[in-house]
Design brief:
The structure holds 2 protein chains of 2 kinds. By secondary structure, chain A is mainly α. Chain A has helices spanning 2-22, 26-46, 50-75, 91-112, 114-118, 128-131, 136-147, 150-171. The longest helix of chain A is centred in the middle third of the chain and has 26 residues, at 50-75. Chain A is globular. Chain B is an all-alpha fold. Chain B has 4 helices and no strands. Chain B has helices at residues 2-8, 13-33, 37-62, 66-95. The longest helix of chain B has 30 residues, at 66-95. Chain B starts with a helix and ends in a 14-residue tail after the last helix. Chains A and B meet through helix 1, helix 2, helix 3, helix 4 and helix 5 of A and helix 2, helix 3 and helix 4 of B.
């Protein structure tokens, strides 16, 4: 059963990712991105990270993709890119080689470290099906977040305020009178 | 016998990490070959998700909730990054519609 879930989610993730990079149309790419993000959320549930799965669906598949679609609609949907045009002749083969190199190096590192990864104890993390506490993951995450990382948590609020102010400044139409820019 | 097969097919953290590596590679490939700034941005999101997935897999494998806390912070930063990045893209594309990444050479110093 877990194997079946993993394979389905992996197909969703990789299919969506390939869809993002081969879609001519940005809207199709955004919809493929939703497929990938949902697949990742499924894998979070499969690994008992329930809170992160909910946040993944709400923030990523909800807010971020809607923001992407909003910008695509705002800028006009006629900007389909012709994928046959290759501006720099050797760009795609080189990109393929580099990407395969990245995957190869990371995979080699994972395979080499597999004994360390697999032999770790699972005692430090709450698994609801084992502990019988349905909210165990959320409680444990909250305790870690609001005790050990409370300063970083407060800093993220500063980050969000800065991002909002910066975006308002960026997106504002230039003043016609030229008084302020 | 069936129990042994089911156990053997239980996805281990190594599977999740290999899947994350593949997703990261696809995202990196997309950033390198696409010229539409919006789609390049989506590919960056793919790479971020690959890293988040490996964080969660390692958090479970090593028994440390800190990995999941990190993913939480990555999501916050990614949301802020998308807001600012899309603001910049809108500012550029409103001035010059249908711009690709190659047309932004005027940003050169």
């Amino acid at each position: 059963m877990a194997f079946f879930v993993f394979v389905c989610a992996a197909l969703m993730i990789l299919g969506g990712a390939v869809g993002v990079i081969i879609s001519q149309h940005p809207v199709h790419a955004a919809l493929s991105l939703i497929l990938t993000l949902f697949g990742v959320a499924v894998l979070y549930v499969a690994q008992d990270a329930h809170f992160l799965a909910a946040v993944q669906v709400i923030v990523y598949a909800g807010a971020i993709v809607v923001l992407f679609l909003f910008v695509i609609m705002l800028l006009g949907v006629d900007s389909a890119e012709d994928l046959q045009i290759e501006p720099i002749p050797v760009q795609r083969p080189l990109a393929a080689i580099v990407a395969l190199g990245i995957v190869g190096v990371i995979s080699a590192a994972i395979v080499q470290a597999r004994s360390t990864i697999a032999s770790g104890t699972r005692s430090g993390i709450d698994i609801p099906t084992v502990s019988g506490d349905a909210d165990g993951n959320i409680r444990q995450l909250a305790r870690d977040l609001f005790s050990d990382h409370v300063f970083a948590f407060e800093l993220t609020s500063v980050l969000l305020v800065v991002a909002v102010v910066g975006t308002v400044l960026l997106a504002r139409r230039p003043d016609k009178s030229g008084a302020a820019s | 016998m069936t129990a042994t097969v089911a156990l053997a097919l239980e996805p281990t953290p190594v599977w999740y990490l290999l899947l994350a590596a593949l997703l990261f590679g696809v995202g990196a490939f997309g950033v390198m070959i696409r010229r539409n700034p919006l789609i390049m941005f989506m590919c960056v999101e793919l790479m971020l998700n690959a890293v988040n997935l490996s964080f969660v897999a390692l958090a479970r494998s090593l028994g440390d909730i800190g990995g999941q806390t990190t993913v939480f912070f990555v999501m916050v930063v990614a949301a802020a990054e998308v807001v600012v990045g899309l603001g910049i893209i809108v500012a550029i594309l409103r001035r010059r519609p249908n711009t690709t990444a190659d047309d932004m050479v005027e940003l050169k110093g």
